[in-house]
Amino acid sequence: LSEPPVLSRPDDEEILYLYLSVASEAVSAALVRETHEGQKPMYFTSKALQGPELRYQQIEKVALALVNAARRLRHYFLAHTIMVRTDQPIKSLLGRPDMAGRMLKWSLELSEFDIRYERRKTLKAQVLADFVAEMTNPSPPTNGADKWTIFVDGASNATGAGEGIILENENGILIEVSLALSFPTSNNQAEYEAFLAGLRLVEDM
User: Fold this and answer.
1) Sequence-distant (≥ 6) Cβ neighbours of residue 81 within 8 angstroms
2) In the chain, N or C terminus with fewer CB closer than 10 Å?
3) Does 3.40.50.880 match the CATH number of domain 144-204?
4) pLDDT at 90 over 60
């Protein structure tokens, strides 16, 4: 891999899909595209819960996952319709007329975006969002050497499938890994496998 691979780029005005997840000490989101080849991951966001956030109710944590994704991926939220797929009643919660405190603040913050909601149908992106939430460390790193950025790519053809992973920290240290998959897979599945392998690699460091 000579350049850090991009997971997937959306077309103009394309509807993007967001999956939310909550773990005991973290929340996460997976932003994906849907194409004729299946789901294409774009970005994954996560936030370690701290202080009072750890005592939020489950539905409040799900709402926080949405707010965090909107803040981190603001340019995508402004340029695209975001379809949130969840089994949680976020829409009704954020639309209540008697809201107050942080829920009112979050509702106002999200009101500038074209966010829609539908019941979760597909599990693959949800599994990734769950995995990111579980992998998020509640204790943030203390220096640049401990902060790593993951770049991944995967591909499949008639001769086999493989994946490439690049890890880079803020001191410029690069770790490149290439892996061959021993089972048949599509390009889309190879990309998911590459992402999961990258997260496991970071966890072991």
Assistant:
1) 13, 15, 16, 114, 115, 116
2) C
3) no
4) yes
